[in-house]
């Protein structure tokens, strides 16, 4: 009697399960890369907004008043809002300025901080 060559049904099913798991992991990794790229775009544009605002404050050469004020800007077709917080420092000749950036869905994006002098 001649013995048949080839794979058994169990071997084929095990191979299919292994391929399915590998493809699932690959799709999950690709999704994570897409999410990371989106987050990087969001944070970069938010940082440009905050840097523009803080640079504008530096260039105005005015000593900022202590308190909070809202701001808004648009970068890369997205609207960002935020809060500019000016607080005192131990040295009265300097103020700490925090620019908290929020995306259009109300989620915090980043906080950029600088020190401004008189």
From TrEMBL:
<protein>
    <recommendedName>
        <fullName>Type II secretion system protein I</fullName>
    </recommendedName>
</protein>
<comment type="function">
    <text>Component of the type II secretion system required for the energy-dependent secretion of extracellular factors such as proteases and toxins from the periplasm.</text>
</comment>
<comment type="subunit">
    <text>Type II secretion is composed of four main components: the outer membrane complex, the inner membrane complex, the cytoplasmic secretion ATPase and the periplasm-spanning pseudopilus.</text>
</comment>
<keyword id="KW-1003">Cell membrane</keyword>
<keyword id="KW-0472">Membrane</keyword>
<keyword id="KW-1133">Transmembrane helix</keyword>
<dbReference type="InterPro" id="IPR003413">
    <property type="entry name" value="T2SS_GspI_C"/>
</dbReference>
<keyword id="KW-0488">Methylation</keyword>
<keyword id="KW-0812">Transmembrane</keyword>
<keyword id="KW-0997">Cell inner membrane</keyword>
<dbReference type="Pfam" id="PF02501">
    <property type="entry name" value="T2SSI"/>
</dbReference>
<dbReference type="InterPro" id="IPR010052">
    <property type="entry name" value="T2SS_protein-GspI"/>
</dbReference>
<dbReference type="Pfam" id="PF07963">
    <property type="entry name" value="N_methyl"/>
</dbReference>
<feature type="domain" description="Type II secretion system protein GspI C-terminal">
    <location>
        <begin position="45"/>
        <end position="116"/>
    </location>
</feature>
<dbReference type="InterPro" id="IPR012902">
    <property type="entry name" value="N_methyl_site"/>
</dbReference>
<dbReference type="InterPro" id="IPR045584">
    <property type="entry name" value="Pilin-like"/>
</dbReference>
<comment type="similarity">
    <text>Belongs to the GSP I family.</text>
</comment>
């Amino acid at each position: 009697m001649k013995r048949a060559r080839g794979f058994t049904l169990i071997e084929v099913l095990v191979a299919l399960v292994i391929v399915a798991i590998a493809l699932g992991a690959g799709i999950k990794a690709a999704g994570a890369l897409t999410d990371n790229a989106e987050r990087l775009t969001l944070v970069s544009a938010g940082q440009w907004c905050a840097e523009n605002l803080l640079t504008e404050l530096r260039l105005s050469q005015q000593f900022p008043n202590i308190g909070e004020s809202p701001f808004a800007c648009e970068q890369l077709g997205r609207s960002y809002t935020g809060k500019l917080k000016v607080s005192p420092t131990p040295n009265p000749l300097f103020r700490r300025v925090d620019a908290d950036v929020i995306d259009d869905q109300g989620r915090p994006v980043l906080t950029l901080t600088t020190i401004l002098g008189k």
